[in-house]
Protein backbone atom coordinates (compact mmCIF):
# COMPACT_ATOMS: atom_id res chain seq x y z
CA UNK A 1 0.00 0.00 0.00
CA UNK A 2 1.18 3.51 -0.83
CA UNK A 3 2.13 5.76 2.05
CA UNK A 4 0.35 9.01 2.88
CA UNK A 5 2.10 12.12 1.71
CA UNK A 6 -0.24 14.35 3.68
CA UNK A 7 -2.69 13.63 6.45
CA UNK A 8 -5.39 15.91 7.84
CA UNK A 9 -6.61 15.14 11.36
CA UNK A 10 -9.79 16.66 12.79
CA UNK A 11 -9.46 19.91 10.87
CA UNK A 12 -11.69 22.83 11.82
CA UNK A 13 -11.65 26.11 10.00
CA UNK A 14 -13.85 28.99 10.95
CA UNK A 15 -13.84 32.74 10.71
CA UNK A 16 -15.94 35.59 11.93
CA UNK A 17 -18.52 37.24 9.76
CA UNK A 18 -18.90 40.67 11.24
CA UNK A 19 -18.53 40.85 15.01
CA UNK A 20 -21.03 38.26 16.13
CA UNK A 21 -21.51 35.45 13.67
CA UNK A 22 -18.98 32.67 13.30
CA UNK A 23 -18.82 30.82 10.01
CA UNK A 24 -17.52 27.27 10.21
CA UNK A 25 -16.19 26.14 6.83
CA UNK A 26 -14.63 22.85 7.88
CA UNK A 27 -16.05 20.73 10.68
CA UNK A 28 -13.61 18.08 11.75
CA UNK A 29 -12.20 16.80 8.48
CA UNK A 30 -10.05 13.68 8.47
CA UNK A 31 -8.34 12.93 5.20
CA UNK A 32 -5.26 11.21 3.90
CA UNK A 33 -3.77 11.69 0.44
CA UNK A 34 -1.60 8.85 -0.74
CA UNK A 35 1.42 8.92 -3.00
CA UNK A 36 0.45 8.63 -6.67
CA UNK A 37 -3.25 9.25 -6.18
CA UNK A 38 -5.38 11.22 -8.58
CA UNK A 39 -8.33 12.48 -6.58
CA UNK A 40 -11.09 15.01 -6.97
CA UNK A 41 -12.56 17.02 -4.14
CA UNK A 42 -16.17 17.55 -5.13
CA UNK A 43 -19.12 19.27 -3.60
CA UNK A 44 -21.54 22.12 -4.16
CA UNK A 45 -20.29 25.67 -3.91
CA UNK A 46 -19.98 26.82 -0.33
CA UNK A 47 -19.44 23.27 0.88
CA UNK A 48 -15.90 24.05 2.01
CA UNK A 49 -14.03 22.22 -0.72
CA UNK A 50 -11.87 25.21 -1.67
CA UNK A 51 -11.06 25.84 1.98
CA UNK A 52 -10.07 22.21 2.30
CA UNK A 53 -7.77 22.55 -0.68
CA UNK A 54 -6.15 25.67 0.79
CA UNK A 55 -5.45 23.82 4.00
CA UNK A 56 -3.95 20.86 2.11
CA UNK A 57 -1.87 23.29 0.06
CA UNK A 58 -0.55 25.17 3.12
CA UNK A 59 -2.09 28.35 1.74
CA UNK A 60 -4.25 28.79 4.81
CA UNK A 61 -3.95 27.57 8.37
CA UNK A 62 -6.86 25.71 9.97
CA UNK A 63 -8.35 26.96 13.22
CA UNK A 64 -7.63 23.63 14.88
CA UNK A 65 -6.49 20.16 13.96
CA UNK A 66 -3.30 18.69 12.60
CA UNK A 67 -1.73 18.65 9.14
CA UNK A 68 0.89 15.95 9.05
CA UNK A 69 3.58 15.70 6.40
CA UNK A 70 6.41 13.19 6.94
CA UNK A 71 5.14 12.47 10.45
CA UNK A 72 5.44 16.11 11.38
CA UNK A 73 2.59 18.45 12.28
CA UNK A 74 3.38 21.34 10.01
CA UNK A 75 1.02 23.70 11.81
CA UNK A 76 3.76 24.27 14.37
CA UNK A 77 6.11 25.58 11.67
CA UNK A 78 6.69 29.29 11.46
CA UNK A 79 5.87 31.26 8.35
CA UNK A 80 9.30 30.99 6.74
CA UNK A 81 9.39 27.23 7.22
CA UNK A 82 5.84 26.94 5.87
CA UNK A 83 6.82 29.02 2.83
CA UNK A 84 9.80 26.82 2.14
CA UNK A 85 7.74 23.66 2.56
CA UNK A 86 5.05 25.13 0.30
CA UNK A 87 7.58 25.81 -2.39
CA UNK A 88 9.01 22.29 -2.30
CA UNK A 89 6.03 20.17 -1.39
CA UNK A 90 3.15 21.49 -3.43
CA UNK A 91 2.43 23.10 -6.80
CA UNK A 92 -0.76 25.04 -7.49
CA UNK A 93 -3.02 25.40 -10.48
CA UNK A 94 -5.80 27.95 -10.06
CA UNK A 95 -9.08 28.52 -11.85
CA UNK A 96 -7.99 32.11 -12.57
CA UNK A 97 -4.54 30.87 -13.68
CA UNK A 98 -2.95 33.53 -11.40
CA UNK A 99 -0.01 34.22 -13.64
CA UNK A 100 1.87 37.51 -13.38
CA UNK A 101 1.13 39.45 -16.51
CA UNK A 102 4.31 41.44 -16.34
CA UNK A 103 6.46 38.34 -16.48
CA UNK A 104 6.93 36.31 -19.65
CA UNK A 105 5.69 32.73 -19.90
CA UNK A 106 9.15 31.42 -19.16
CA UNK A 107 9.67 33.80 -16.22
CA UNK A 108 6.29 32.80 -14.77
CA UNK A 109 7.27 29.14 -14.95
CA UNK A 110 10.62 29.87 -13.31
CA UNK A 111 9.14 32.16 -10.61
CA UNK A 112 8.99 29.46 -7.87
CA UNK A 113 12.68 28.67 -8.42
CA UNK A 114 13.66 32.27 -7.58
CA UNK A 115 12.35 31.68 -4.06
CA UNK A 116 13.82 28.21 -3.64
CA UNK A 117 16.15 27.51 -0.74
CA UNK A 118 17.30 24.10 -1.87
CA UNK A 119 20.01 23.20 -4.30
CA UNK A 120 18.53 21.94 -7.53
CA UNK A 121 19.39 18.46 -8.69
CA UNK A 122 18.52 19.67 -12.18
CA UNK A 123 18.87 22.85 -14.20
CA UNK A 124 15.62 24.83 -13.67
CA UNK A 125 15.85 26.49 -17.09
CA UNK A 126 16.24 23.15 -18.84
CA UNK A 127 13.29 21.76 -16.91
CA UNK A 128 11.21 24.83 -17.84
CA UNK A 129 12.12 24.30 -21.49
CA UNK A 130 11.25 20.63 -21.24
CA UNK A 131 7.86 21.44 -19.68
CA UNK A 132 7.08 24.17 -22.20
CA UNK A 133 8.01 21.82 -25.01
CA UNK A 134 5.92 19.04 -23.60
CA UNK A 135 2.87 21.28 -23.12
CA UNK A 136 3.24 22.86 -26.55
CA UNK A 137 3.95 26.38 -25.35
CA UNK A 138 7.66 26.62 -26.14
CA UNK A 139 6.95 29.04 -28.97
CA UNK A 140 5.21 31.32 -26.45
CA UNK A 141 8.10 31.41 -23.98
CA UNK A 142 8.70 35.14 -24.47
CA UNK A 143 5.02 36.10 -24.65
CA UNK A 144 3.14 37.66 -21.76
CA UNK A 145 0.25 35.67 -20.25
CA UNK A 146 -2.41 38.23 -21.26
CA UNK A 147 -1.39 37.75 -24.88
CA UNK A 148 -2.04 34.01 -25.05
CA UNK A 149 -5.21 31.89 -24.90
CA UNK A 150 -6.78 30.59 -21.69
CA UNK A 151 -5.78 27.02 -22.47
CA UNK A 152 -2.21 28.12 -23.01
CA UNK A 153 -2.27 30.14 -19.80
CA UNK A 154 -3.42 27.10 -17.85
CA UNK A 155 -0.61 25.06 -19.41
CA UNK A 156 1.82 27.73 -18.22
CA UNK A 157 0.29 27.46 -14.75
CA UNK A 158 0.67 23.67 -14.79
CA UNK A 159 4.27 23.99 -15.93
CA UNK A 160 4.85 26.45 -13.09
CA UNK A 161 3.33 24.00 -10.60
CA UNK A 162 5.73 21.30 -11.83
CA UNK A 163 8.95 23.31 -12.01
CA UNK A 164 9.95 22.58 -8.41
CA UNK A 165 9.22 18.87 -8.87
CA UNK A 166 6.72 18.87 -5.98
CA UNK A 167 5.19 15.83 -4.35
CA UNK A 168 1.67 17.11 -4.81
CA UNK A 169 -0.19 19.12 -7.42
CA UNK A 170 -3.30 20.96 -6.26
CA UNK A 171 -5.67 22.27 -8.88
CA UNK A 172 -8.63 24.46 -7.97
CA UNK A 173 -11.29 24.23 -10.70
CA UNK A 174 -8.54 24.08 -13.32
CA UNK A 175 -11.04 23.83 -16.18
CA UNK A 176 -13.53 26.33 -14.78
CA UNK A 177 -12.44 29.18 -17.02
CA UNK A 178 -11.96 27.09 -20.13
CA UNK A 179 -14.27 25.80 -22.84
CA UNK A 180 -15.11 22.07 -22.82
CA UNK A 181 -12.60 21.12 -25.49
CA UNK A 182 -9.71 22.98 -23.87
CA UNK A 183 -10.83 21.69 -20.48
CA UNK A 184 -10.69 18.13 -21.75
CA UNK A 185 -7.17 18.71 -23.03
CA UNK A 186 -6.08 20.03 -19.65
CA UNK A 187 -7.68 17.04 -17.93
CA UNK A 188 -5.90 14.71 -20.30
CA UNK A 189 -2.66 16.40 -19.35
CA UNK A 190 -3.33 15.79 -15.66
CA UNK A 191 -4.21 12.15 -16.29
CA UNK A 192 -1.05 11.72 -18.28
CA UNK A 193 1.10 13.31 -15.56
CA UNK A 194 -0.45 11.03 -12.99
CA UNK A 195 -0.17 7.85 -15.03
CA UNK A 196 3.23 8.26 -16.61
CA UNK A 197 5.04 10.21 -13.92
CA UNK A 198 3.14 9.04 -10.85
CA UNK A 199 2.55 12.61 -9.77
CA UNK A 200 0.02 12.94 -6.96
CA UNK A 201 -2.79 15.22 -8.04
CA UNK A 202 -5.74 16.59 -6.11
CA UNK A 203 -8.20 18.70 -7.96
CA UNK A 204 -11.20 20.59 -6.77
CA UNK A 205 -14.24 20.61 -9.00
CA UNK A 206 -17.99 20.88 -8.86
CA UNK A 207 -18.39 19.21 -12.27
CA UNK A 208 -19.20 15.49 -11.96
CA UNK A 209 -17.78 14.89 -15.49
CA UNK A 210 -14.42 16.12 -14.42
CA UNK A 211 -14.53 14.21 -11.17
CA UNK A 212 -15.28 11.01 -13.09
CA UNK A 213 -11.92 11.27 -14.81
CA UNK A 214 -10.08 10.94 -11.51
CA UNK A 215 -9.57 7.75 -9.58
CA UNK A 216 -10.80 8.87 -6.20
CA UNK A 217 -13.61 11.19 -5.28
CA UNK A 218 -13.62 13.06 -2.00
CA UNK A 219 -17.08 14.49 -1.50
CA UNK A 220 -17.42 17.47 0.76
CA UNK A 221 -20.76 18.63 2.07
CA UNK A 222 -21.36 21.26 4.69
CA UNK A 223 -17.78 21.32 5.86
CA UNK A 224 -17.50 17.58 6.25
CA UNK A 225 -16.05 14.84 4.07
CA UNK A 226 -18.96 12.53 3.36
CA UNK A 227 -17.50 9.92 1.03
CA UNK A 228 -13.94 9.19 0.09
CA UNK B 1 25.09 40.66 0.10
CA UNK B 2 26.02 42.21 -3.21
CA UNK B 3 25.45 39.09 -5.24
CA UNK B 4 22.11 38.74 -3.47
CA UNK B 5 21.25 42.36 -4.22
CA UNK B 6 22.11 42.41 -7.87
CA UNK B 7 19.41 39.94 -9.03
CA UNK B 8 16.94 41.90 -6.89
CA UNK B 9 17.96 45.15 -8.56
CA UNK B 10 17.79 43.47 -11.92
CA UNK B 11 14.32 42.15 -11.20
CA UNK B 12 13.20 45.57 -9.93
CA UNK B 13 14.52 47.27 -13.04
CA UNK B 14 12.88 44.63 -15.24
CA UNK B 15 9.67 45.27 -13.35
CA UNK B 16 9.85 48.99 -14.10
CA UNK B 17 10.45 48.35 -17.76
CA UNK B 18 7.30 46.26 -17.97
CA UNK B 19 5.19 48.55 -15.87
CA UNK B 20 6.16 51.88 -17.33
CA UNK B 21 3.05 53.82 -16.35
CA UNK B 22 3.21 52.85 -12.70
CA UNK B 23 6.94 53.51 -12.59
CA UNK B 24 6.55 56.89 -14.25
CA UNK B 25 3.69 57.93 -11.96
CA UNK B 26 5.41 56.84 -8.80
CA UNK B 27 8.72 58.46 -9.54
CA UNK B 28 6.87 61.52 -10.81
CA UNK B 29 5.20 61.80 -7.42
CA UNK B 30 8.53 61.70 -5.65
CA UNK B 31 10.13 63.96 -8.23
CA UNK B 32 7.45 66.60 -7.76
CA UNK B 33 7.65 66.26 -4.00
CA UNK B 34 11.38 66.90 -4.02
CA UNK B 35 11.13 69.58 -6.65
CA UNK B 36 8.39 71.55 -4.91
CA UNK B 37 10.34 71.71 -1.68
CA UNK B 38 13.65 72.60 -3.28
CA UNK B 39 12.08 75.16 -5.60
CA UNK B 40 9.98 76.86 -2.94
CA UNK B 41 13.00 77.18 -0.69
CA UNK B 42 15.08 78.40 -3.63
CA UNK B 43 12.48 81.05 -4.46
CA UNK B 44 12.20 82.08 -0.83
CA UNK B 45 15.97 82.37 -0.57
CA UNK B 46 15.91 84.38 -3.77
CA UNK B 47 13.48 86.80 -2.20
CA UNK B 48 15.69 87.04 0.86
CA UNK B 49 18.81 87.58 -1.26
CA UNK B 50 17.03 90.24 -3.26
CA UNK B 51 15.86 92.16 -0.20
CA UNK B 52 19.18 91.88 1.59
CA UNK B 53 20.96 93.01 -1.56
CA UNK B 54 18.80 96.12 -1.57
CA UNK B 55 19.62 96.88 2.04
CA UNK B 56 23.34 96.28 1.69
CA UNK B 57 23.48 99.19 -0.71
CA UNK B 58 22.35 101.47 2.06
CA UNK B 59 25.34 100.61 4.20
CA UNK B 60 24.97 99.46 7.73
CA UNK B 61 27.46 101.81 9.24
CA UNK B 62 25.90 105.00 8.10
CA UNK B 63 24.85 107.86 10.35
CA UNK B 64 22.68 110.56 8.81
CA UNK B 65 22.47 114.08 10.16
CA UNK B 66 19.39 115.93 8.99
CA UNK B 67 18.11 119.39 9.81
CA UNK B 68 14.93 119.63 11.90
CA UNK B 69 13.78 116.54 13.69
CA UNK B 70 14.84 114.23 10.91
CA UNK B 71 12.70 111.43 9.56
CA UNK B 72 10.32 111.35 12.46
CA UNK B 73 9.74 115.08 13.14
CA UNK B 74 7.00 117.33 11.84
CA UNK B 75 7.91 118.75 8.48
CA UNK B 76 10.90 116.49 8.44
CA UNK B 77 9.92 115.54 4.95
CA UNK B 78 10.74 112.49 2.94
CA UNK B 79 14.06 111.17 1.79
CA UNK B 80 13.31 113.13 -1.39
CA UNK B 81 14.37 116.15 0.57
CA UNK B 82 12.08 118.78 -0.83
CA UNK B 83 10.00 119.44 2.25
CA UNK B 84 12.72 120.25 4.72
CA UNK B 85 11.92 123.52 6.45
CA UNK B 86 13.51 125.10 9.45
CA UNK B 87 16.30 123.73 11.51
CA UNK B 88 19.99 123.98 10.96
CA UNK B 89 21.54 124.95 7.67
CA UNK B 90 24.76 122.96 7.61
CA UNK B 91 27.83 124.42 5.92
CA UNK B 92 31.51 123.63 5.39
CA UNK B 93 32.37 124.66 8.95
CA UNK B 94 30.21 121.79 10.25
CA UNK B 95 32.10 119.43 7.99
CA UNK B 96 35.43 120.64 9.34
CA UNK B 97 34.15 120.34 12.94
CA UNK B 98 32.79 116.85 12.40
CA UNK B 99 36.03 115.64 10.84
CA UNK B 100 37.61 116.13 14.28
CA UNK B 101 35.34 113.46 15.81
CA UNK B 102 37.40 110.38 16.54
CA UNK B 103 36.51 107.06 14.96
CA UNK B 104 34.91 108.55 11.89
CA UNK B 105 35.86 107.10 8.56
CA UNK B 106 33.94 109.37 6.22
CA UNK B 107 32.19 112.71 6.50
CA UNK B 108 30.10 113.39 3.44
CA UNK B 109 28.14 116.63 2.93
CA UNK B 110 25.06 116.21 0.80
CA UNK B 111 23.45 118.76 -1.47
CA UNK B 112 20.17 117.52 -2.86
CA UNK B 113 17.89 119.03 -5.42
CA UNK B 114 15.52 118.04 -8.15
CA UNK B 115 15.93 119.45 -11.60
CA UNK B 116 15.95 118.97 -15.33
CA UNK B 117 19.01 117.19 -16.66
CA UNK B 118 19.77 117.30 -20.38
CA UNK B 119 21.82 114.64 -22.07
CA UNK B 120 22.68 113.91 -25.67
CA UNK B 121 19.56 111.93 -26.46
CA UNK B 122 16.96 113.09 -24.01
CA UNK B 123 16.28 115.17 -20.94
CA UNK B 124 14.76 114.20 -17.65
CA UNK B 125 13.83 115.58 -14.26
CA UNK B 126 16.05 113.78 -11.78
CA UNK B 127 18.01 114.17 -8.56
CA UNK B 128 20.97 116.52 -8.52
CA UNK B 129 23.42 115.56 -5.82
CA UNK B 130 26.49 117.33 -4.57
CA UNK B 131 28.82 115.23 -2.45
CA UNK B 132 32.51 114.69 -1.80
CA UNK B 133 34.71 111.86 -3.04
CA UNK B 134 33.97 109.67 -0.01
CA UNK B 135 30.32 109.37 -0.94
CA UNK B 136 30.94 106.49 -3.34
CA UNK B 137 32.84 104.45 -0.76
CA UNK B 138 30.19 105.14 1.82
CA UNK B 139 27.35 104.02 -0.44
CA UNK B 140 29.25 101.00 -1.81
CA UNK B 141 28.82 102.38 -5.32
CA UNK B 142 30.51 100.31 -7.99
CA UNK B 143 31.77 102.03 -11.09
CA UNK B 144 30.37 100.64 -14.36
CA UNK B 145 32.53 102.71 -16.70
CA UNK B 146 34.83 105.70 -16.43
CA UNK B 147 35.99 106.96 -13.04
CA UNK B 148 34.56 108.75 -10.02
CA UNK B 149 35.72 112.22 -9.03
CA UNK B 150 38.45 112.65 -6.43
CA UNK B 151 39.54 115.12 -3.79
CA UNK B 152 41.18 117.42 -6.33
CA UNK B 153 37.96 117.66 -8.32
CA UNK B 154 36.16 118.64 -5.13
CA UNK B 155 38.65 121.36 -4.18
CA UNK B 156 38.79 122.67 -7.76
CA UNK B 157 35.02 122.90 -8.16
CA UNK B 158 35.51 120.70 -11.21
CA UNK B 159 32.59 120.64 -13.62
CA UNK B 160 32.40 116.84 -13.68
CA UNK B 161 29.55 114.45 -13.02
CA UNK B 162 28.98 110.79 -12.26
CA UNK B 163 25.66 109.45 -13.48
CA UNK B 164 23.38 106.85 -11.99
CA UNK B 165 22.74 103.94 -14.31
CA UNK B 166 19.07 104.57 -15.08
CA UNK B 167 19.62 108.24 -15.78
CA UNK B 168 22.57 107.53 -18.07
CA UNK B 169 20.50 104.97 -19.90
CA UNK B 170 17.66 107.41 -20.46
CA UNK B 171 19.44 110.53 -21.56
CA UNK B 172 22.15 108.84 -23.62
CA UNK B 173 22.04 106.16 -26.32
CA UNK B 174 23.75 103.65 -24.11
CA UNK B 175 24.59 103.89 -20.43
CA UNK B 176 28.27 103.11 -20.81
CA UNK B 177 28.69 105.48 -23.75
CA UNK B 178 27.87 108.50 -21.58
CA UNK B 179 31.45 108.82 -20.35
CA UNK B 180 33.26 111.69 -22.05
CA UNK B 181 30.06 113.42 -23.08
CA UNK B 182 28.38 116.21 -21.24
CA UNK B 183 25.14 116.97 -19.43
CA UNK B 184 23.49 120.33 -18.74
CA UNK B 185 21.57 121.22 -15.64
CA UNK B 186 20.66 124.45 -13.87
CA UNK B 187 22.61 126.46 -16.40
CA UNK B 188 25.90 124.63 -16.04
CA UNK B 189 27.58 122.09 -18.30
CA UNK B 190 29.20 119.09 -16.67
CA UNK B 191 31.51 116.53 -18.19
CA UNK B 192 30.42 112.97 -17.51
CA UNK B 193 33.43 111.06 -16.14
CA UNK B 194 31.74 107.94 -14.88
CA UNK B 195 28.60 105.85 -14.66
CA UNK B 196 27.89 103.77 -11.58
CA UNK B 197 26.32 100.33 -11.58
CA UNK B 198 22.65 99.84 -11.01
CA UNK B 199 22.00 99.63 -7.27
CA UNK B 200 18.27 99.05 -7.24
CA UNK B 201 17.78 102.27 -5.28
CA UNK B 202 15.75 104.53 -7.55
CA UNK B 203 17.03 107.75 -6.02
CA UNK B 204 20.61 106.72 -6.54
CA UNK B 205 20.15 105.19 -9.97
CA UNK B 206 18.59 108.28 -11.48
CA UNK B 207 20.88 110.91 -9.99
CA UNK B 208 23.56 113.14 -11.40
CA UNK B 209 26.30 113.27 -8.78
CA UNK B 210 28.86 116.09 -8.75
CA UNK B 211 31.40 117.55 -6.31
CA UNK B 212 29.46 119.54 -3.70
CA UNK B 213 31.69 122.54 -4.37
CA UNK B 214 30.47 122.60 -7.96
CA UNK B 215 26.94 123.23 -6.72
CA UNK B 216 28.05 126.39 -4.96
CA UNK B 217 27.06 128.49 -7.96
CA UNK B 218 23.67 128.53 -9.54
CA UNK B 219 22.47 125.31 -7.92
CA UNK B 220 23.24 126.11 -4.30
CA UNK B 221 24.12 129.80 -3.85
CA UNK B 222 23.76 129.64 -0.03
CA UNK B 223 26.48 126.99 0.10
CA UNK B 224 24.49 124.96 2.61
CA UNK B 225 24.00 121.20 2.88
CA UNK B 226 20.77 119.34 2.97
CA UNK B 227 22.27 116.60 5.07
CA UNK B 228 25.55 115.19 6.32
CA UNK B 229 26.37 111.48 6.14
CA UNK B 230 28.90 109.98 8.50
CA UNK B 231 30.63 106.70 7.82
CA UNK B 232 31.77 104.57 10.76
CA UNK B 233 34.20 101.64 10.32
CA UNK B 234 32.06 99.17 12.23
CA UNK B 235 28.56 98.80 13.52
CA UNK B 236 29.72 98.75 17.15
CA UNK B 237 31.05 102.30 16.93
CA UNK B 238 27.89 103.76 15.47
CA UNK B 239 26.45 104.73 18.81
CA UNK B 240 29.53 106.37 20.31
CA UNK B 241 30.28 108.27 17.13
CA UNK B 242 26.69 109.50 16.93
CA UNK B 243 26.84 110.95 20.41
CA UNK B 244 30.24 112.55 19.74
CA UNK B 245 28.87 114.13 16.56
CA UNK B 246 25.86 115.34 18.48
CA UNK B 247 28.12 117.07 21.03
CA UNK B 248 30.02 118.81 18.25
CA UNK B 249 26.86 120.08 16.59
CA UNK B 250 25.26 121.19 19.87
CA UNK B 251 27.99 123.78 20.22
CA UNK B 252 26.47 125.56 17.26
CA UNK B 253 22.82 124.50 17.06
CA UNK B 254 19.88 123.93 19.32
CA UNK B 255 18.82 120.38 20.04
CA UNK B 256 15.71 120.72 17.87
CA UNK B 257 17.63 122.03 14.89
CA UNK B 258 19.01 118.69 13.78
CA UNK B 259 18.46 114.99 14.10
CA UNK B 260 20.86 112.08 13.97
CA UNK B 261 19.55 108.86 12.43
CA UNK B 262 21.51 105.66 12.47
CA UNK B 263 21.17 103.23 9.64
CA UNK B 264 21.77 100.47 12.16
CA UNK B 265 18.36 101.18 13.63
CA UNK B 266 16.89 100.38 10.27
CA UNK B 267 19.09 97.33 10.02
CA UNK B 268 17.73 95.98 13.28
CA UNK B 269 14.26 96.16 11.80
CA UNK B 270 15.54 94.54 8.63
CA UNK B 271 17.08 91.72 10.63
CA UNK B 272 13.76 91.17 12.34
CA UNK B 273 12.15 90.98 8.92
CA UNK B 274 14.76 88.42 7.85
CA UNK B 275 14.08 86.36 10.93
CA UNK B 276 10.44 86.32 9.93
CA UNK B 277 11.26 85.49 6.31
CA UNK B 278 13.36 82.56 7.54
CA UNK B 279 10.47 81.30 9.63
CA UNK B 280 8.10 81.64 6.69
CA UNK B 281 10.60 79.75 4.50
CA UNK B 282 10.73 76.90 6.96
CA UNK B 283 6.93 76.89 7.10
CA UNK B 284 6.63 76.90 3.29
CA UNK B 285 9.20 74.12 3.10
CA UNK B 286 7.37 72.03 5.67
CA UNK B 287 4.02 72.52 3.96
CA UNK B 288 5.39 71.58 0.56
CA UNK B 289 7.15 68.62 2.09
CA UNK B 290 3.84 67.56 3.62
CA UNK B 291 1.98 68.01 0.33
CA UNK B 292 4.70 66.23 -1.62
CA UNK B 293 4.82 63.54 1.04
CA UNK B 294 1.07 62.94 0.90
CA UNK B 295 1.32 62.67 -2.89
CA UNK B 296 4.11 60.14 -2.67
CA UNK B 297 2.26 58.30 0.07
CA UNK B 298 -0.92 58.04 -2.00
CA UNK B 299 0.70 56.76 -5.13
CA UNK B 300 2.92 54.28 -3.30
CA UNK B 301 0.05 53.06 -1.18
CA UNK B 302 -2.25 52.71 -4.18
CA UNK B 303 0.24 50.90 -6.37
CA UNK B 304 1.35 48.50 -3.67
CA UNK B 305 -2.19 47.76 -2.48
CA UNK B 306 -3.12 47.07 -6.06
CA UNK B 307 -0.40 44.46 -6.09
CA UNK B 308 -1.76 42.45 -3.19
CA UNK B 309 -2.81 39.73 -5.62
CA UNK B 310 0.71 39.61 -7.01
CA UNK B 311 2.03 39.25 -3.48
CA UNK B 312 -0.43 36.38 -2.89
CA UNK B 313 0.69 34.61 -6.07
CA UNK B 314 4.34 34.98 -5.16
CA UNK B 315 3.62 33.69 -1.67
CA UNK B 316 1.69 30.72 -3.09
CA UNK B 317 4.70 29.65 -5.11
CA UNK B 318 6.97 29.77 -2.09
CA UNK B 319 8.03 33.37 -1.43
CA UNK B 320 8.65 34.10 2.24
CA UNK B 321 7.46 37.31 3.83
CA UNK B 322 11.03 38.55 3.85
CA UNK B 323 11.32 37.86 0.10
CA UNK B 324 8.29 40.06 -0.52
CA UNK B 325 9.61 42.80 1.74
CA UNK B 326 13.03 42.74 0.11
CA UNK B 327 11.43 42.97 -3.32
CA UNK B 328 9.26 45.95 -2.41
CA UNK B 329 12.04 47.61 -0.46
CA UNK B 330 14.33 47.37 -3.47
CA UNK B 331 11.65 48.70 -5.77
CA UNK B 332 10.71 51.61 -3.51
CA UNK B 333 14.34 52.41 -2.93
CA UNK B 334 15.15 52.52 -6.62
CA UNK B 335 11.99 54.49 -7.39
CA UNK B 336 12.58 56.99 -4.59
CA UNK B 337 16.20 57.54 -5.45
CA UNK B 338 15.43 57.82 -9.14
CA UNK B 339 12.49 60.19 -8.59
CA UNK B 340 14.40 62.19 -6.01
CA UNK B 341 17.44 62.59 -8.23
CA UNK B 342 15.27 63.57 -11.19
CA UNK B 343 13.57 66.16 -8.97
CA UNK B 344 16.92 67.54 -7.86
CA UNK B 345 18.32 67.72 -11.38
CA UNK B 346 15.19 69.44 -12.64
CA UNK B 347 15.28 71.91 -9.74
CA UNK B 348 18.93 72.64 -10.40
CA UNK B 349 18.16 73.36 -14.04
CA UNK B 350 15.21 75.58 -13.11
CA UNK B 351 17.24 77.43 -10.50
CA UNK B 352 20.01 78.03 -13.02
CA UNK B 353 17.42 79.40 -15.44
CA UNK B 354 15.61 81.66 -12.95
CA UNK B 355 18.92 83.03 -11.67
CA UNK B 356 19.14 85.06 -14.85
CA UNK B 357 16.39 87.29 -13.50
CA UNK B 358 16.18 86.64 -9.81
CA UNK B 359 18.78 85.61 -7.22
CA UNK B 360 17.27 82.20 -6.35
CA UNK B 361 19.56 79.76 -4.57
CA UNK B 362 19.70 76.02 -3.84
CA UNK B 363 20.01 75.35 -0.17
CA UNK B 364 21.93 72.23 0.83
CA UNK B 365 19.84 71.61 3.94
CA UNK B 366 16.64 71.96 1.91
CA UNK B 367 18.01 69.57 -0.70
CA UNK B 368 19.05 66.99 1.90
CA UNK B 369 15.81 67.26 3.87
CA UNK B 370 13.62 67.18 0.75
CA UNK B 371 15.48 64.22 -0.68
CA UNK B 372 15.69 62.40 2.63
CA UNK B 373 12.10 62.89 3.72
CA UNK B 374 10.63 62.17 0.27
CA UNK B 375 12.69 59.01 -0.08
CA UNK B 376 11.82 57.94 3.43
CA UNK B 377 8.11 58.46 2.77
CA UNK B 378 8.42 56.69 -0.58
CA UNK B 379 10.21 53.75 0.93
CA UNK B 380 7.96 53.54 3.97
CA UNK B 381 4.75 53.63 1.97
CA UNK B 382 6.22 51.23 -0.54
CA UNK B 383 7.13 48.69 2.10
CA UNK B 384 4.43 49.19 4.72
CA UNK B 385 1.43 48.10 2.56
CA UNK B 386 3.55 45.26 1.17
CA UNK B 387 4.26 44.15 4.72
CA UNK B 388 0.55 44.22 5.44
CA UNK B 389 -0.20 42.22 2.29
CA UNK B 390 2.55 39.72 3.06
CA UNK B 391 1.07 39.17 6.52
CA UNK B 392 -2.16 37.90 4.96
CA UNK B 393 -2.42 34.22 4.20
CA UNK B 394 -1.50 33.70 0.51
CA UNK B 395 -5.06 32.83 -0.38
CA UNK B 396 -6.48 35.98 1.20
CA UNK B 397 -3.94 38.03 -0.73
CA UNK B 398 -4.77 36.32 -4.04
CA UNK B 399 -8.47 36.93 -3.55
CA UNK B 400 -7.94 40.55 -2.51
CA UNK B 401 -9.79 42.93 -4.77
UniProtKB/TrEMBL annotation, chain A:
Q: Where is the ABC transporter domain?
A: 6-227
Family annotation (Gene3D superfamilies): P-loop containing nucleotide triphosphate hydrolases
Q: Where are the transmembrane segments?
A: none
Molecular function per GO? ATP binding; ATP hydrolysis activity; transmembrane transporter activity
This protein's GO CC annotations: membrane protein complex; plasma membrane
Report keywords, A-Z. Answer: ATP-binding, Nucleotide-binding, Transport
Q: Which InterPro entries match?
A: AAA+_ATPase (IPR003593), ABC_transporter-like_ATP-bd (IPR003439), ABC_transporter-like_CS (IPR017871), ABC_transpr_LolD-like (IPR015854), MacB-like_ATP-bd (IPR017911), P-loop_NTPase (IPR027417)
Q: What is this protein called?
A: ABC transporter ATP-binding protein
Could you tell me which species this protein originates from?
Candidatus Collierbacteria bacterium RIFOXYD1_FULL_40_9
TrEMBL record, chain B:
Listed A to Z, the keywords are: Cell membrane, Membrane, Transmembrane, Transmembrane helix
Domain of life of the source: Bacteria
Q: How does it sit in the membrane?
A: Multi-pass membrane protein
Kindly name one Pfam family recorded for this protein: FtsX
- Domain annotation MacB-like periplasmic core: ranges: 23-247
Q: What Gene Ontology terms describe where this protein resides (cellular component)?
A: plasma membrane
Q: Does the keyword ATP-binding apply?
A: no
Query: Would I find Transmembrane helix among this entry's keywords?
Result: yes
Q: Which family does it belong to?
A: Belongs to the ABC-4 integral membrane protein family.
The protein, known as: ABC transporter permease
The record lists the organism as: Candidatus Collierbacteria bacterium RIFOXYD1_FULL_40_9
